[in-house]
Records
---
Amino acid sequence: MRTISFFLLMSLSFNTLAQVQYIEKGTQAPFTGYLFTPEAELKNRKDLIQLDMFRQTVPLLEQNNTLLTKQVDLWRTQSDELSKQLIRQERSTFWQNLGYFALGAVLTTGLAFAVNQSTK
């Protein structure tokens, strides 16, 4: 973000390079402004190109961030729903197991009673 801010400030200070005029050494400049060496001008142009790339990248990154946020929200919602289903399933499994245990206890008691009666 610092880099983008730096390039935004730079673009505001060096509005445009359209007013470029070559001047021989010793010649008086026809207007007030900044005088760049060819190397500094090349660096400035590269920086402006990089700034344009950053400006094009920022909306894409924001869009990607929005999509990722929606995806995380969806996963969180699904996780909550699956947790609720698991709790419901565990509760029903508990009652089901309790019912099987009670049925087994009743059948065992009944069989024990029947066997006891038949042996007398």
---
Amino acid sequence: MDPGQLRFQAHSPADAAQMSALLALGMICAVKSNAVSADYACAKLFRPSFLGRLRRLGVDEEFCESLAEALELDDVASLVESALPSLLERLTEILTQYLASTEQARHDEPRYCWLDGYGTHREDPP
């Protein structure tokens, strides 16, 4: 791997969903606080290819469908701006509930570092 790259790797479909939910929640928080625009969020993360990759990895279809609403952020912001805050709140609630439910369900599973090239959470990168 190029030393200038930063890559994260999920170790299972559940890991991919959890990682994606965390990324999506962070991006939604950034849009809500006006740190980034809805256009930026859709250009950088909320793209059809994002959902396509999750589906190919075997991520739960119900999760993918709920995340699909995020792909509309730029359209909602430009066409019906008054609807954007409620969409952001709905997505925040969905993602927060999802993360709470998966973390509880996965409490006893071994944790792996998402930073590509490292194993368990107990191994520190050099």
---
Amino acid sequence: MEARPPFSEESATTDAAPAAQAQARRRSGQPSVTAMALSADGQQVALCWTDGVVMVRRTGDGVIIRVWETGLMSFSVAFTPDGKHVITSEDGVFVRNVETGLIVRALPFLGSAVALVGDGDTLIGSDGTAFIIGRLDGKQMGKVAFSEPLLSYPIDVAVSLDGRTGVAGDYPSKRQQLCVFDLELGTPRRWLRMPPSMLYDLPAERAGQRPSPGATPVLLFLSSTGRLLSVTGSYGSSLYNFDSGRRRELLRCSEIGVSRVDFSHDESLLGATLFDGSVRIWSMPSGRLVEHREADSKEFDDVQMSVLSLDLGLFAANRYNGALSVTDLHNGNTKVFPADPTTTS
């Protein structure tokens, strides 16, 4: 990818800057995390914050290797498959080089929420009126209009690995719906109405408070072929099976809350992490609970947001105090890294 000069308002950080930037932010008050992602090899985690900071940390030692101060919140973040670039959706979509800190692409046409297709080169975004298809080289490839627009810009977009199925979630509205699209045919499959346990109070999370029932679907996850959709709110997780046309409520948590879910690549398992640090895994498509692993320590009750990879056996969580914990699901070992590491290499 040919790098373009960075925008004037955002240049590359120096090699010694990330830890110092993190310390300065904490002195002014700890913001909340709005999005979090693991690299494909599990060696890096990206975090987006309410103060517009995008941060990349290593999962092996917790070192902060890159900090960008964008000034705008992002609710979507992803790594390219090689882990060399981070993709965020702020006022448009930006592709940043982790090593150099430079913006290499700006794709303003993709909207406010974005997901990366499995080929690692195609992006699916949405502005609330359509799915927008683009490529990392900056080209817009197509647009699939909704049969009726969402009432406001979407909070999340999900796409299957094969790029054939897309889902966009509405912001608070009377409809509280998801739009499921066949991206190849350019036609909607269906509109899905959110059950009460799938709704989420975004203002409370932005203020750093514990989640409470609200009116916004939080996270959308499609299985690799798009047959299964998990809709996860802070107070539950539901599974939609498009083959059978049925919905199953897998988890409803009146006190703890759901942080993240993930499908295994072969679609045989669905896992969920809770805000107390516990992990639950179901067999697919039956929805039978096959594992319930409690957190090793009560210290996990302050989990703010997490990411989970069943294929890697890795669970990373960001806490309300800014610390990062990384758990190996194969052996149960957990490492906890402080918010302000003293080393940067």
---
Amino acid sequence: MLADHTSLLAGGLAHSADMTRFGAVAALLPRFCHAGFECPLGDDEPGLDFLHCLRRTEESRYLVDAPRAHVVWRRLRHFATLWRTDGTALDRIPNCWLEFDLRGQRTTDAPAPSLFVHVPATSPAEYDAAVEQVGAALQMARSPATRAAMIRLYETFGPYSSGCETGFWLARRTPAIRMVFMKIQAPPDGVMELLERAGHPDPAIVRRTPVPGLWPSSGCTAIGVDVTERVAPGCSVELYPLPPDRAFTDDVYVEVQRRLLEDVVAAGLCTAGKYARVMRWPAIVSQGHDADRRAEIWLRRAVHVKLTVKPEQPVSAKGYLSLSGLAVTRERPVHAST
């Protein structure tokens, strides 16, 4: 199923080597409900990262059975086994994402992902307990200073967020943990205030040109920071084209996606070529014949743009393309009797 859609990425967005790696991931994790592709927008060079969503009660079983001997996969199998067990703090995690940094891997490398767990809005103590168990399962225990810095961030941003995507960089050589606070509806000044309260060393970094000018194009944002024993100087700002938790027609969705990307092009963060290729991705695709009662509908969307802001470096932008599957049951026609 993945191959039916990823073929559209070949050439302009994905290298041929990326297509090989997609196949390797699909062999390990044959089913998914949501997937995503992250592509740099600032140049016309192909290259993607791949994200695969696993639900605790569904696709997580494929993670338990993953046959790879690589140390990253051994840690993930251990996490998944505990995650599927009822009665622990991991119950608070309904889904997680595996992030494959394909652009940084050689074709011959076994795909090894990092792990992002989604913790819906809860108390700081419950969030900390869930993340502590994840770290223990992955053999990536946090230091007391890191734990304190993360709790402070959660206490500050948690009340304004729908949840926190928390990333353990299994595939990177860094001790940092990524915290991404989702669905924040606040202007740049409001986010600066929250960053300052949370101990960020340079909250005004979100004012770096052209970030504030793009903010009105977005329905909501997600704010990401890296944490070691303190909050790292940079941050990421994810711009979503529509407000959260509201239904929109597909025509409206495509139009606001187009406007957001046009603003990113105008800001010099996206090439015309990448804009055209990204806008060819959105579609609604039905799998199954008309006579079939059960079928699948696949939604392809350009979901958001992520701006990464680092000290003394140019702002960079990535586009996020999503692929989501919905199972549907068609009604059989009823013929009136005469």
